[in-house]
Specification:
three-stranded antiparallel β-sheet, homodimer, alpha+beta, DNA-binding, Nucleoside Triphosphate Pyrophosphohydrolase, Arc Repressor Mutant, subunit A, about 25% helix
DNA sequence: GAAATAGTGTCTATCAGACATTATGGC
DNA sequence: GCCATAATGTCTGATAGACACTATTTC
């Protein structure tokens, strides 16, 4: 990144970034969890204008002094809004236009995060925050800005990635059973999956580690507990789950 | 987008976006084409500091006065740099950090574009531009900023999308033969594909329209010409091309 | 033993890979 | 006819879906 280029040091000494008009830049988060048999998204009630009193995705201005990078800004806001360290966090897309925010030209880079519902502690920060059930690809009330569109894109990405990756494990606690994992997939994909096929897929991908303890549910045979083998590596299924199963 | 919210009009009247410190915001392009049996990317030689004289991806500052949106900005730069109207253009990712540009905090939203090599006319704009062959996921010389990393990400995304979508048609002229399309896939995926399987895939996807004319090559039986049926709809193959074929 | 849930075995349809075969042009 | 390339046909192996069956717990 250091360029030994004649004249560049001089150029940089004189350079002033405020010469140019810039858009405002924000980072927003679509934080998903599964609880009560439904996909939920974390929303905040806006305390300030614009859209004061409306529900919106958590997020806000990037602070060039505090945030070393856009990723770091997203991680910071994740902690501030959801009090969580490092669950699954992935950049979704950047939305920017002259009219998406009444304050003027803004761009927002949106991240989507997955977490186990138990691992969240909503800190009663400045803003009122709560989990809202997602029906189809939307929530039941109006969202500020273009956040309804962003949420729809995020839900689509989540569904799409569930078909060929393991990311749903990030929606469960560290130890979980295969029926729980399957149920998570079914809730998000909104379709029943075959038990046998599902298990084959997961076992063949060799991503799970069997734990010797067992979990007992209220009824029936207890289910084997598993743990995800490698939270860093993102692995892919060789074939996609058919959206037209059944 | 218009909020009938008490106090909001007053708030907006007083609001001044320059209260907050903002990062600079740019849009960069990774423009791919296939020519001479190789994947190529469009690079420009930087006329100004920083990285003056280095090769870099085309792009530059978003202009809030001229650009209605980030997408519009990308389209504008595509015309300016490559003189092309509307080929395939897709947002790749946003890169932003304190140290990726010596001028200070910048974020760049990167798009990747595909085009037929014949459709490009490089306008000798302010910058010197040329097509550079991609070897693996890089070019043969150093790129300014973090553009080597960005290029690698773009190549990976291109390869990945080729395995399950039709986007390679955007690298060919409007009329093309199946062997030409197959060759394009082979060049980018860097692996030979079976003719029969390839044709089955493409035909079953029902995306091509047979043209009655035929094209003759120097030798052998002439190949049937086809046209892509719907440039807007993005369709997907039911299964991915195996990366481990052969 | 009945109910409930976990987990396994097996059949089948589908489809990609492999490769042989036929088709159609130039020379 | 020969060569080169395009296009088709057929076999096979892998695997997802379907579903029957077994296993293990609580009551």
């Amino acid at each position: 990144m250091i360029a030994a280029n004649p004249g560049e040091a001089e150029f940089l000494r004189r350079y002033d970034a405020s010469w140019y008009e810039k858009p405002s830049f924000t980072v927003d988060l679509v934080i998903f969890t599964v609880r009560d048999e439904h996909l939920h998204v974390l929303l905040v009630k806006r305390a300030e204008h614009p859209f004061k009193g409306c529900w919106a995705l958590p997020g806000g201005f990037l602070d060039p002094r505090r945030d070393a990078s856009v990723d770091a800004c997203a991680a910071r806001k994740l902690v501030e809004e959801a009090g969580v360290r490092a669950p699954y966090l992935e950049q979704l897309k950047t939305y920017g236009s002259r009219d998406r925010d009444p304050r003027g030209w803004t761009a927002t880079t949106v991240y989507f995060a997955l977490m186990a519902s138990a691992s969240v502690r909503l800190r009663g920060n400045q803003a009122e925050a709560c989990w809202v059930g997602v029906r189809g690809d939307r929530v039941d009330f109006d969202l500020g800005f273009d956040h309804a569109r962003i949420l729809a894109d995020a839900v689509e990405r989540l569904r799409s990635k569930l078909e060929y990756t393991h990311i749903a494990v990030h929606l469960l606690p560290e130890e979980f059973t295969l029926p729980e994992l399957q149920r998570t997939y079914e809730i998000i994909l909104q379709q029943p999956l075959d038990k046998s096929s599902f298990r084959r897929r997961v076992v063949q991908a060799d991503m799970l580690e069997e734990l010797t303890g067992k979990q007992r549910d209220g009824f029936g045979r207890p289910a084997q507990l598993y743990r995800f083998r490698d939270y860093d590596r993102q692995t892919f299924f060789p074939r996609s789950i058919s959206r037209h199963a059944r």
